[in-house]
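HOLO CASE FILE
Compound: zinc ion
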Amino acid sequence: MEARFCPRCGAGLDDKPPTTCAACGYALFVNARPTASLIVHDGRRFLALRRAMEPRAGLWEVPGGFCDGWEEPAVAALREGREELGVQVTLGDFVGMYVGSYDYQGERLPVLDCFFLATFDDGAQVTLDPRESSAMAWFDLDQPPPLAFETMDRAVAEAARRLGR
Ligand SMILES: [Zn+2]
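Model generated. Tokens follow.
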């Protein structure tokens, strides 16, 4: 995080965050921002989307995104499923959470990536959002392609272990 001014009083900061504003005493922390993602599976395979947006456009990922404000990660995961897949998924077990890096406008931010298992209901019709994803494919849980974010590799490996793959 490259903040150079106090967001409360506007004074210049002596150090990069984490630091405390010398003028007003406001403490600036550096915290991982929470995200929530879905590992949609059929017991053997999981669903991956090809990223249409930077960062990491063109690489495979699992559906997900940043949590809004006070939104619970499980609620965010369901919302991202509706936005990116066009369907209401059924959430399964929580897989885990992992700290990763996200490059945003020249900054490298810490993120806290939360992953949930999920399944489709019978007859679910996926509709991709073309701004987000250019393709979808099912991959064996134990043979995933290179994924856009390292935390996704870890989560898919854990999901494969949980599901006995
Ligand atoms: Zn200040």
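CASE NOTES: The mean pLDDT is 95. The first helix runs from residue 73 to 85.
CLOSED: yes
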